[in-house]
Amino acid sequence: MFPIAFHPIYKHPLPEGHRFPMIKYELLPQQLLHEGTVTPTAFFEPGLPDMQHILAVHERNYVDNLINLTLDPRAVRKIGFPLSSELVERELRLAQGTILGAEKALQTGIGFNIAGGTHHAYSNRGEAFCLLNDQAIGAQYLLDQKLAKKILIVDLDVHQGNGTAEIFQNNDKVFTFSMHGKSNYPFKKETSDLDIALHDHTEDAKYLEVLQNTLPYLIETQKPDFIFYLSGVDILASDKLGKLGCTLDGCKKRDEMVFSLCRKYEISVQVSMGGGYSPNIKTIIEAHANTYRVATAIYS
Q1: How does pLDDT run across 5-21, given as a tens digit for each residue?
Q2: How many structural domains comprise the chain?
Q3: Closest residue by Cα to residue 239 from 8, 24, 10, 13
Q4: Which candidate, 141, 99, 101, 95, places its Cα nearest to that of 118?
């Protein structure tokens, strides 16, 4: 059974206007356990990280202001959540969940964070509900601990991984690949090592064709020994914040492709959930649950 990072603080209460997108972090583990996709022993609770691992990616001044709740009000507005000590602790534990999940993936082949995918967090600021960049922190940790030599970040959220691109813009040990909606947020995009911007309403067939023509080539040419996969389900046509046109089945086939390639090339992979904002919470949970179901089928 693959390991999954989850901590009760992941689902801490927020003001009314922010609760809906957060409730999936509580419902998804319940669904996976209810249907038997995973057992309780699959879950582990991350503690707080060593701050040196956070500071290896994020600037000290930003981190200090975040922890002390002294960020400029404009910086807080860019994050989009009201800042609180509970929110900061959540982000710290979330980052540690990705670090530990990456370590465990080296043993099991794959590891998950029930949250994560905070790819809009820059080295010196947060934005778009992202305070600390969990997969960037995890990637730098593996490099610093000499647990990996070359990392490929596969970001398939509907939004470009702008913070991740900025963090690793001068690091040739990390290759950043983002396939996202061309007209989606962020409207001023950063430059990843490879960006593929898809037109509005791109459907399953085209989406999967582009990915199939890209990801195997990247693996063969970049030769990563570890992959971080951001499996956002906001590529669905029903998503309120996305502009692509994929179905639940197309999203599931995307995950099958990524995991099958990781297994074929024997590359360990850490998976963070990323976005999902369809109006019906059942659609969000089903899409995210499919990612775990596919992993169970491929890694069992």
Answers
A1: 998 888 765 555 444 56
A2: 1
A3: 24
A4: 95
Q: Phi and psi (nearest 5°) for 269? A: -140, 135
CATH number assigned to the domain comprising residue 189: 3.40.800.20
- Whether 93 contacts 134, CB under 8 Å: no
Structure tokens at 190: 């950063």
Q: What's this model's pTM, rounded to 2 decimal places? A: 0.95
Structure token pair of residue 241: 């914040």
- Residue range(s) defining the domain that contains residue 89: 4-299
77-125: pLDDT as tens digits: 999 888 999 999 999 999 999 999 999 999 999 999 999 999 999 999 9
Give the 3-state secondary structure of 91-145: HHHHHHHHHHHHHHHHHHCEEEECCCCCCCCCCCCCECCECCCHHHHHHHHHHHC
300 against 62, higher pLDDT? 62
Print burial letters for 234-243: b (CB count within 10 Å at least 16), e (below 16).
Answer: bbbbbbebbb
pLDDT per residue as tens digits for the range 55-64: 999 999 999 9
CA angle 101, 3, 222 (to 5 degrees): 50
Q: Count CA atoms within 13 Å of residue 299 on its CB side.
A: 29
